[in-house]
Amino acid sequence: MQEGLRIENHPILDFKSSRGKKVHITVNGKRIEAFEGEPIAAALVASGIKVFRQTPKLHKPRGLYCAIGRCTDCIMNVNGVPSIRTCVTPVEDGMIIKNQDI
Questions:
Q1: pLDDT tens for residues 3-39?
Q2: CA 38 to chain CA centroid, nearest Å
Q3: What distances in angstroms separate CA 100 from CA 13, 35, 64, 82, 92, one per listed residue?
Q4: Domain 3-101 adopts which CATH fold?
Q5: Which residues partner with 90 through β-bridges?
Q6: Would you say residue 49 has pLDDT above 50?
Q7: d(CA 82, CA 41)
């Protein structure tokens, strides 16, 4: 995991004590570390993964956009279920996540 992409120190907020335990998820065949309970999208971005899917017609890359579950830019296949909004779906140990073309 690239620790540099996570907020480690903040003058007001305490991120370290509120994080879940470290777990592993598999993203497109690659095993990455994440924190249990954090949004899948946050774990992906922290690991340097920015493209979550491609648009169906023009194959343009899409990733995290609204981060509140209103759009569909962050949808991925999670544990065999397509079109899961990763920005509002919490990480669980052992998840298998794949990019999807819709």
A1: 447 767 777 767 666 678 999 999 999 999 999 999 9
A2: 8
A3: 35, 23, 14, 8, 20
A4: Ubiquitin-like (UB roll) (3.10.20)
A5: 39
A6: yes
A7: 15
Torsion-angle region of 71 (φ positive above 0: left; ψ -120 to 50: alpha; else: beta): beta
CA-wise closest residue to 68 among 84, 82, 53, 87: 87
- If you search the block for the tokens 């991925």, which residue do you land on? 76
- Closest C-alpha among 1, 75, 82 to residue 39: 75
Q: Residue 67 in contact with residue 87, Cβ under 8 Å?
A: yes
Closest CA to 50 of 29, 73, 25: 73
- Residue 21: which residues within 8 A CB-CB, separation 6 or more? 35, 36
Residue 26, both tokens = 């598999």
Question: What distance in Å separates the CA atoms of residue 78 and residue 80, rounded to the nearest whole number?
Answer: 5
